[in-house]
UniProtKB/TrEMBL annotation:
Disordered: annotated span: 35-55
Biological process terms in GO annotation: proton motive force-driven ATP synthesis
Cellular-component GO terms for this entry: mitochondrial membrane; proton-transporting ATP synthase complex
Main location: mitochondrion
MF (Gene Ontology): proton transmembrane transporter activity
The protein's name in its UniProt record: ATP synthase complex subunit 8
Subcellular location: Mitochondrion membrane
Record field: transmembrane: 6-24
């Protein structure tokens, strides 16, 4: 059964993993977020208790 032979598939997996980790991932990580969450101010919501009509 050819699908049990790891010779071509293991090589393809290693090459694709290395391509992603060494070429694609650093390019993606260089993008700067347009709206970083650290610039947002934390606001506390004004919460009021719910008045249940049957209590």
């Amino acid at each position: 059964m050819p699908q049990l032979n790891p010779n071509p598939w293991f090589f393809i997996m290693i090459i694709s993993w290395l391509t992603f980790s060494m070429i694609i991932q650093p390019k993606i990580l260089t993008f700067v977020s347009t709206n970083p969450p650290s610039n947002k101010t934390h606001t506390t919501p004004n919460t009021t208790p719910w008045t249940w009509p049957w209590t």
